[in-house]
Amino acid sequence: MHPTSARLLNILVPIKRTIDYAVKIRVNPQNTGVDTNVKHSMNPFDEIAVEEAIRQRERNKDAIKSIKVVSIGPPKASEVIRSALAMGADSGIHVEYPDSAPSPEPLAIAKTLKAIIEREAKEKNAPIDLVILGKQAIDDDAGQTGQMLAGLLGWGQATYASKVELDASGKSANVTTEIDGGSQQLKGQLPMVITTDLRLNEPRYASLPNIMKAKKKPVEKLSPSDLGIDLTPLLETIRISEPAKRQAGAKVETVEELVAKLKEAGFKAA
């Protein structure tokens, strides 16, 4: 079937506002978490996901209808939504919770995304065909949301993608994924979930005209209750502490001296 005679595809890209990757992480004085009074930006793996969605539309101009981004976070998460819109996404959804609320766990995020996908199909008549998101967020490094979302939806999934070839007319995707010691190729039918790895692409910089255009693109604001979701974490962080400081090393002149130092430190020959 020719793409123009079929329903056009809709892509959803979940994105997260995280502490900027260049910031040195420090534990806060209360030892309850890290200091968040620092520069934030879009999670780098999610930025790759936004870029990939845009590139797929550039390759399949007549087959992809919309690219929508969604961020689940405090009020300032709107900043990363606007960044994604400036890159080329069409619209956004912001599921907002208070600054004082703890960060939701991956399962709650996955349930929220599932609710949004179901809402897009039922209320907006815009079924989601492909979800592209980062393989992990650099703040918690959980790497669970994409897999949980695919499980909740009963969709196929391809994680750690380093190459995506979308067959829009056949509604399928060939995905090269990173595995230990190499890569593997997977083929799946849409709808499906893909998580992005570093080698997939290099995100573009938003131009000034596109930044200005992004201010006029629609962003829908929702609360967790609008979706029937409770974001309250099931786990409580009791205490966070800095790792022990690395002790200074020492130089030795000979192998014999090295062996003697190791014995002094309590090491024994095997």
Task: Tell me the radius of gyration.
Answer: 22 Å
Tell me about the largest β-sheet: 9 strands, mixed
- Distance from N terminus to C terminus (CA atoms, Å) equals 68 Å
Structural class: alpha/beta
Mean pLDDT: 92
The CATH architecture comes to: 3-Layer(aba) Sandwich
Number of helices: 6
Helix content range of the residues, please? 25-40%
Tally of structural domains: 1
CATH class group: Alpha Beta
Low-confidence stretches: none
Order of helices and strands: EEEHEHEHEHEEEEHEH
The CATH superfamily name is HUPs
Characterize the structure shown.
The chain is of the alpha/beta class and 270 residues long. The protein has one domain (3-238): Rossmann fold, CATH 3.40.50. Helices cover 26% and strands 26% of the residues. It is built from 6 helices and 11 strands. It has a 9-stranded mixed β-sheet, with helices on both faces. A two-stranded antiparallel ribbon has the order 2-3. The mean pLDDT is 92. One of its GO terms (biological process) is fatty acid beta-oxidation using acyl-CoA dehydrogenase. It holds the Pfam family ETF. This is Probable electron transfer flavoprotein subunit beta.
Describe the structure in brief.
This protein is an alpha/beta fold and 270 residues long. The protein has helices at 44-59, 78-87, 106-122, 145-153, 208-214, 255-264; strands spanning 9-15, 17-19, 40-42, 64-73, 91-96, 130-134, 156-167, 172-179, 182-189, 192-196, 219-222. The chain has one domain: HUPs (Rossmann fold).
